[in-house]
Each structure stands twice: as C-alpha cells, then as structure tokens.
Request: fold
Amino acid sequence: MSRVYNRYKQRNVANETTADIDRKHREAISAGDAAELTDAAAPVRGMPLVEVDSLSVAFGRGKSRVRAVDEVSFNVGHGEAIGLVGESGCGKSSLARALVRLEKPAAGAIRFEGRDLSTLKGEESQQYHTQSQMIFQDPYGSLNPRLQVGRAIREVLTVHGRGSRIQRASIVSGLLQSVGLDPGHANRYPHEFSGGQRQRVGIARALAVQPRLLIADEPVSALDVSVQVQILNLLKDLQRDHKLTILFVAHDLAVVRYLCSRILVMYLGRIVETAGSGPLYSRPMHPYTKALMSAVPDVSKSLEKRKTGKGRMIVEGDVPSLSTTFKGCPFQSRCHFSQERCSEEAPPLREVRAGHYAACHFAEDLMSIPA
Amino acid sequence: MTVEVQTETLVEVRNLCITLGKRTQPVKVVDGVSLTLRAGETVALVGESGCGKSLTALAMARLLPSPPARCESGEIFFQGRNVLEMTEKELQSLRGDEISYVFQEPASSLNPVFTVGNQVGEAVRLHRQGTNVDSEVISLLRLVGIPDPETRRKAYPHQLSGGMQQRVMIAMALACKPRVLIADEPTTALDVTIQAQILELLLRLQEELGMAILLITHNLGLVADVAHEVHVMYAGRIVESGPAVEVLTNPTHPYTTALLNAVPRLEGTRGRLRGIPGTVPNPGFLPEGCRFHPRCEKRTELCSTEEPEPERLDQSHWVTCHHWNE
Reply:
C-alpha cells in the first residue's frame, strides 16, 4: 500500500520537473554540437562527491571467505574522472559494484555527499540510484535481446517516474541523440546494432536519470580500436557537458590516461599506488604499476624497443588467488625487485611525494628507474 | 634492417575471393587478397571487425563454413599443393598436422566437460599414433609454461584462469608440431599483463620450432611488437602491406594512419583522439570507387568514381590509394 503511495507521490513530484528535464536534455545536445575540443578532466575543488572509507567487500563464509576489496580508502571530487586499474580478479569490479550498491560492504563505509550509503532505506535508496549509474563491459550481454532499445531506455524513466508518457518518448530520442545514435532507431532490437552502438545504448540508459556519478566497468575492452575512441570521446564530452563524475575501471593504462586525471592502481583488493595521471605515468613508484605500463602494447614504445633491442618487463604468473594467505607484500611473488623485507612486512600505502601514494618499501629507489 | 635470408615459403594465397550468401546473389566479403607465409616469420593481418580477416584465415585450411561461405576464385598453396583442390583425407592431415589455429576466446573454444589434458591428448591420439599420450601431454603443457603440468592436466577449463586456458589452446595447436600457426586475436580477451606473457610465449615457440605465424589482430601495438610483415585490410581488400616497421613508421594509406591515430598512447595524448568517423560498410552495399572514401579525410572526386589499384612504393611496400604520394 505504502509503496503504491510512494510511487504516486514520486510521479507527482516528477511531473513538476519534467519540463526542466526536457530542457536540460536539449541544452546538453546543443552544447555537444557547439563544443570545442578541449582537454577537460580537471577536478572541481571542495567537498568530495564520494568518500570511500576503509571499505572491504567479502564473499563466502568461514574458511572459503575471501576479501575481494580490502580496506580501500579514496575520495572522488565533483566532476572528476578517476581511473581504477588492475588485472582481472584484483577486486576492481567488486569495488565498482559496491559504489552502486550492487554489493554490500563487509566493513567500512561509502559516503555520497556525506551520507553513508548503508543507512539509506526505501525511497532514499531508490533516490540514490538516480544519482549513480553504471555501464557494463559487455554490451552484448547487458541489453535484453527481446526489448527494443527505446523501450529499454524508457523502462528506466518509468521506474523512476520521470516524465509523462508523451514526454518520455521525447526524452528517449533526446538521449539517443546525445550519445550519437539516430533517434529513429529507438524501435530497433539490440542485435541490429554493432558493439559500439550497443555500448552507446548502455550509456544512454545510464544517463536517463541524469546521474551525477557514472561508473564505467571496462566499457571499451570488448570493442575495436576505432570504436573505442568514439566511446572514449563520448564519455569525455559527457563529463565536460553534464559535469559528470566518472569512475573508469579498466586494465589498459593507456586508455585510462586519455580520460582520467587521477589514477588508482589496485592489486589483490588493495590500492598499491595512487597519484595524478601526470606523475603516475612519468614516475611510477610501485613495481606493479611499472609492469602494467610495460605490458601495454604501445606502437611507438614497441618500435623504439625493436631499434634498441631491449625487451619488456613481464610479470610472471597470474594474480594469486585471494584465498591464499601470505605474509608481507601481496605483490612479492611476482615482483622483480622483491627483497627479504618484502616477505616479512606488508608495506602500507604512504605518501612518497606530495599527492603521490605508493605501497612499496622501496618506492623512493624505484622512482628513478625508468619504466 | 635484417639480413635477407631465403626462407621456405609455406603458404601462398593468391587473389583469394570469398563470397557469402546465395549463389544467385553472392556478397563478396574477401576480394583479391594475396599473402605469403614463410617459415620463422610472423605476418600480421590487421583490420576492424567485419573486414574479412578471419575468413581469410579460415580459408587457409578450408575451414570456411560452407554454405554460406565459398571460395569464389583464387588459389591457396601449402608447400606447393593447392588446398582448394585437396580431398577430404588430405585436408585431415593438413589440419592440425601442418596448419593449426588459436582462437580468440579460450573459454568458449574449450570443452567444459573434459579435462584439459584429455583435450590436448585428443590431437596427439588422432594425429600421432604410437606415441605415449600422457607423457606427450605433460611435455606440451610444460612447453607452453603451465606450472605443475602433471596435476594441472587433470583440471577442467573452468578451474583455470583466462591466460592458462589460452596456454592450453596453444598447447593443443602445437600438439603435432605444425609448420603454420594461425592466431586469430589470441590476446584480445586477456589482461594486458597476460597478453604480454602469451606474446612472449608465441615468439619463443616460433624460435624453437621455426613456425610461420599469421597474427590476426586489430591492435597495432601488437603488430609493432612482433610482426615482420603487416597487411592492413579494409572491407575485404588489402589496402597497405609491407615490412611492419616500415609501414608503422611511414604509414601511407589514410586508413593505416587513422588506425594508428585511434590508439590512446601511454605517454598521453595532446587534445583529442581523432578516431575514424562512420563505420565499416556493409559488404552488400560497398561504396563506389575506393571503399574507404566515405570515411577518408583525403578524398577527392576521383576516389568516389574510380577504384585505386595497388601501387608499389619500394621493394615490398604496397599501397592502394590514389593520393598516397601527396
């Protein structure tokens, strides 16, 4: 009974603002057309939008309990694009999912504009989903094959009570246009689109509620290089035009650098290095970051290497299983620089230079070694 | 750069045309592709999804799903024998024995209900009767760098990580010591660190076994890393080919340049990446003239009316563009 009433109430509230929504969408579209090509990724100062405070996410019970995210803390400022990098199994997706409340934290807290997410209930909880949205890696798997894309987007508006029936149609076509799709394609099915176009539909769907935080979990790794750029540019434009805050999850450091102003490098559920993208790429301090950079297949770097005949630095083996217990540094088993101290003492994440944090005993020494 | 060594030519593809669809309305998806694979060399075939690169590779061992695909014209020679005229029995000994494949997604190429040792052993049992299967499987798994192969061979695919699964696929492909290895996007589904490991593995095996490798990819970074020669494909045609270092340092075709500019660089990008506007054309409705002209920045009227012919820049660098020397 109360749920029905809540929906009714929400719809009434929403009705007042639909004209507003429509206008904003239109403005966004025209702004996109007239946009200049500038490099926008500068964070806005002030109170952070998201505060993650020693967050842990765990799965399983008893002996088989693993901590996918292990006491991670960081802030995301308003309008900032922040990159989260690491191999599969390092916990980056679990962290991303916790931010949109798809996973429950085992310990620690996530605060959105100062409010702890775990205290949100009922209507407030639904309200939060209009503030944060997620786009997923696999554009083939994340759209309902039996639903026309226009309806898939409209569903979001209906659930959140945005607009009247008639207004919704125009909002949907505005959304399709803002992600670079033909509004006339609203009645097509997902299989009629290419991978890149499907990813655009996914983005339009996430933008339907005008979120302030967009979490993109490997949105381009399944796409062709030429299409990758189109999606990256779209995200860049959206960040600038809508003042969107983006958490971009990826395993390719080159892709992350293009979009993000600050980077978090994750390994085995922990953050091992974080800094602004400039210092992180010019002076990586953690051996894992160095290894990740060395592994990126980069044309100019590879050609240079062929001339000089130098090999790349390759980390051996896979990410160890989260359930294995070890003493000391989590990366020691694959590290080229590991020493006795690493197997005894776990290095804490510490500020090595201003704004540049690394969790390595030998960060100062490694800084001077070129990647 | 390297000393010219006369190496053995293993596969020669000449003027290959592949069509899809009904005989009455065939759609040409591969049009006049020629390439040569030599022992110990890596040739890369680069292009966007749907440009026909995988079909070209499948045709080399007559693995095209037919119908709907057909080799309309052209010739494929394996060590002087025409693959297109082989009998089913000859093909059986060609596939796996001489030419083998590694595909993009190891998780969907492996059978989930058999152990990996069993699947690697299948190739050994079928093609090399009389060998001790178990010890051969163990040595193959060790060759591709799987730790503790004696116990790992009893694992099922889901118990292995993506990188380990791809290693198993490579072990299967190598079971009969093939002369030619065709790797169709072997690292696309993998993490960057594992990508680097798999590439390193392929290079080491090539050195040890003297294989020819055809690397199919859309990532020019990989090409720069390992390939001797590169063919850039667009909408069924090769638009530029030549030694990899030469083509990547002096790209001549606008499509090659556009592909190179589309990749985000590790050292950072000034301003905005250009990307390539539009999408790959539908093979049923190819544009008149040069196939790339609707997406090309250098296009002129000539491009929309006349299809360019391949032109030779120097010894082995070819380009198919009206305006390559401008």
In short: Chain B has a mean pLDDT of 87. Residues 293 and 300 of chain B are 8 Å apart (CA to CA). The two ends of chain B are 26 Å apart (CA to CA). The interface with chain A takes residues 48-49, 147, 161-164, 191-197, 200, 218-225, 245, 248-249, 258-260, 262-269, 271-276, 279 of chain B (CB under 8 Å).
